[in-house]
Amino acid sequence: MPLIPDRLSTFFAHDFDSVIDVRSPAEYAEDRVPGAINLPVLDNEERARVGTIYKQESPFKARKLGAALVFRNAANHVERSLSHHEGGWRPLVYCWRGGQRSGSFTWMLREIGWRAEVLQGGYRTYRRLVTGFLYDSPLPHRLIQLGGYTGTAKTALLSRLAAQGVQVLDLEGLARHRGSLLGEMPGGQPAQKGFESDLARALCALDPAKPVVVEAESSKIGQINLPPALWDAMKVAPWIEVAAPIEARAQYLAKAYEDILADAPRLKDRLTPLRYHRGHEVVDRWDAMISAGDRLGLCRALAEDHYDPAYRSSMRAQAPQILHREEAASLEAGALDELAARIAARVHAIRI
Question: Active site residue: 82, 92, 95, 339, which one?
Fold first, then answer.
């Protein structure tokens, strides 16, 4: 019987052994069910070719060509990627709308003897569940924002809090971006839909009866927009704020942004737009530090001249409820472990 999910949480709790996305690589790259493997029955070029014939020549001719390609590709997948599975293997298969591509592949798998099922409605069904969860209703979770000036090691604290048994949501990890002007990471960011899929799965794995710590962010991380349900929950969430001396913050930033600081031409280019916000004199001073290789001085200057004023302005506008403030004399590994333990104790004591 096809899988007919009614809620995202129940869908993520499915008991299939594998999830197979038979859409083209381009469709899969934009978004997919988290954990799904891609075994396309039509590659990008084949899908475009069949679609063109369907529209410009004949639906019947397109279906003939499509069937030949689908079964040829499916046979290759069975031989190369699936032959190790035993007879009891139970995969869930989906395509764009649960139609011919997934139906044909599932039929072949069943004929072999595997207990394959189709996701009814395909990816579109899954996407509607994600959209409903993130856009159409409030989140059931109660968030606590971890705030503080740039360079107070908030991202590093999240993993340490998780090790202390605190529920955390790492938005920058999901968005593959460090959340600032210089926050780009190797490999780039996921597509918006892909981010939302990973976000929805992460949220569904969290217990709504316990608080969730999330790093304070704006409504946009790099090119990724936070969905309304999450942003609405963040706007009303109370804060735990972390503070540290500017020297410690500069040292932390110099390590955290080492890859960007090492590329002087790219770094100068990234800072150029700030001439219109911070003035030519300030940016010229930054450029001189870059040319001189003064990474520590540059990180301190960026914090004092750019990040800190922006943070203070944001705090005046938001006026969040501060539950607790933590002072950290150092941001070295041992000090962060101790800081995380103190914050975790505070979080565990919170009743929501």
Answer: 95
